[in-house]
Amino acid sequence: METKILLSEKEIPTHWYNITPDLPEQLPPPIHPATGKPIGPEDLSPIFPMELIKQEVSTEKWIEIPDEIIDAYKIYRPTPLHRAYRLEKALKTNSRIYFKNESVSPAGSHKPNTAIAQAYYNMKEGVKRISTETGAGQWGSSIALACKIFGLQCTVYMVRVSYEQKPYRKILMQTWGAEVHPSPSNLTNSGRKILGENPDSPGSLGIAISEAVEDAATHENTKYSLGSVLNHVLLHQTVIGLETKKQLELAGEKPDVLIGCVGGGSNFAGLAFPFVSDKLKGKDIRIIAVEPTACPTLTKGVYTYDFGDTVGLTPLVKMYTLGHTFVPPGIHAGGLRYHGDAPQLCLLVKNKVIEAVAYPQKPVFESALLFARTEGIIPAPETSHAIKCAIDEARKNRGNCMVFNFSGHGHFDMAAYDNYLSGKLEDFEYSENMIKEAIEKIPKF
Ligand SMILES: Cc1ncc(COP(=O)(O)O)c(C=O)c1O
Hints:
The chain is an alpha/beta fold. The protein is built from 19 helices and 15 strands. Strands 1-4-5-15-10-11-14 form a seven-stranded mixed β-sheet, sandwiched between helices.
């Protein structure tokens, strides 16, 4: 029995899978905050290159991957699908646990799958610099790498709590040539506004997005790049699920349960969406999205139009949201601290095609340790949410085939492991009041 199911470079997918035409209902359009009307491509063109805008609104089921992108993917793709025999043994489960190992990319996560694509299309359209935000630093390092591959400059606004918790991620980005600023910063009106209200703000992805969007909108030859949430980002990530399908076929398996952690939804969608189309055609697959209880967007948020950022610069999108002003506590899974989620994913949760669960960080780290001590690889705190769910599901002993997305390694998260091992890790109580207050600030439509 093989432990790793490997594909050759020739088997890297040649097309991304676009779920839009297969969704059970039409995706509500993004809305312009000033007019209250659906936005058009011209509204997005100041901050995104046209090819990505086309992908954002495309209803084509398959979108061809340019050769230059496939060449760059070859640095680390296809990624292995592992059978977690040692974890199975430790759990004494009769289920089969597989994980798709996206941690083998140079940045250590799934994020380069879209960073490479985004940098490529920006380069093709003559853009010179990309501005972006990063939570845990995984996205920032991925776009820094991708910008280097395609000869672009890169400016990253890094959520302050992560900037302080993860100095080595910052150095990684700088090593690949990016400029990194802690967010909120004094460099943008958005950052100055937040600092004026709270000089000690830990920052959030929503705030950092405001800063990066403002930077792109106010500078020539600069475009903005987002590491999650948008349709085109989820599209690029589908290489994960498409490869997994082939690998499961090679193993003679059909998945019963698919699991992924959710920050904005991209790694989850990347694994799950190519299987969602099978589920919509009648295949019996459970698909589970996992989030932190400290930021329970899918499990406790409301499904409504809200801003993607904190300050209110982005279009309004229909999604589960905790309110764009919600600043989640500084848990170690920095990449899961986002008030909203991808509209495509939210629509599928609303239609009950996808289930959602939330876990506090202590049991998540307990699962991370069990995984590290059985399978050997140290997971990112974000990824560990998926592992916790996979372990809980495996303990049910249903003889299932389960696959989770191993979205990233935790080599730069040693401070978090140190906190856990020395008993200092805290579980943050979900504050009903905080959420209620933030939900009241959602614009009414
Ligand atoms: C390793 C890892 N997994 C998951 C996520 C969550 O993002 P998404 O939901 O877009 O996959 C992040 C975000 O930074 C991450 O770094």
